[in-house]
């Protein structure tokens, strides 16, 4: 009876350090699915690139007689030398540069100016003009290749890189104009009104105010168009009738022997030169891309 009336011992609360450890464990457990998903995504993205690089060092006999996942016996650069000399990868890369740089310059210059005029300036019919550019986005490029081929042939442009430059510019402008109009819409109108009150002309407002404010957006749009032009195969294959004018994507089709046998080693080396170069470019400017993609998402 006396034992039942004895005071019970107080319940002690867990120590603060133990509570912190529990919270950390709970947060780690909650983040585990996300961590696993990210790791799986990295493996899916990196594994093909790693396999491509390793395969570029294999000989033809290794491709034929050994499993696809086997490692190369040596890391000699014979495949890269053959791809650069016999496969003419250097000439094809130069043609891609000569076709991409002028097209990209025209797309950026005309697209940014058109987006500024359609969104910042006030004039009758600008919404209808923007609708025309939106319609241009929905037109498949496959529908215009045959008529364009005839036009270029009659104009005497066949056998040059001009058909590629003109076609890339025409197909890239609708999306560029639409995206730049969206980015200019996010810039407060008071900025342009203040520039006008200070005596700035339309051209000065565009060069000194509009273009610097949309610089990250311009950078992002230019990079999107760059990858579209550089990785294009259909347009380049249609309009490059001369082997000396082939771009890198079309040139990769040349790594086939007389009887249909593919030279896998030089082919994988040429693909590695193409893929790794653009991949390193993307890694170098990744943060600018992310910043440019979010600039037009919220109106300032």
Structural account:
This protein is mainly α and 300 residues long. It is 70% helix and 0% strand. The protein is built from 14 helices and no strands. It has helices spanning 16-55, 60-65, 78-85, 89-119, 126-138, 145-154, 162-185, 189-197, 202-213, 215-230, 234-239, 248-251, 264-284, 286-295. The radius of gyration is 29 Å and the shape is flat. The chain starts with 15 loop residues before the first helix and ends in a 5-residue tail after the last helix. The relative contact order is 0.13.
Defining key terms:
300 residues, mainly alpha, 14 helices, flat
Distance between the termini: 77 Å
What is the helical fraction, as a range of percent? Answer: over 70%
- What is the count of helical runs? 14
Low-pLDDT sequence parts: 296-300
Strand content: under 5%
Assembly type of the shown chains? single chain
Helix-strand pattern: HHHHHHHHHHHHHH
Report a brief summary of the structure.
With 300 residues, the chain is mainly alpha-helical. The chain is built from 14 helices and no strands.
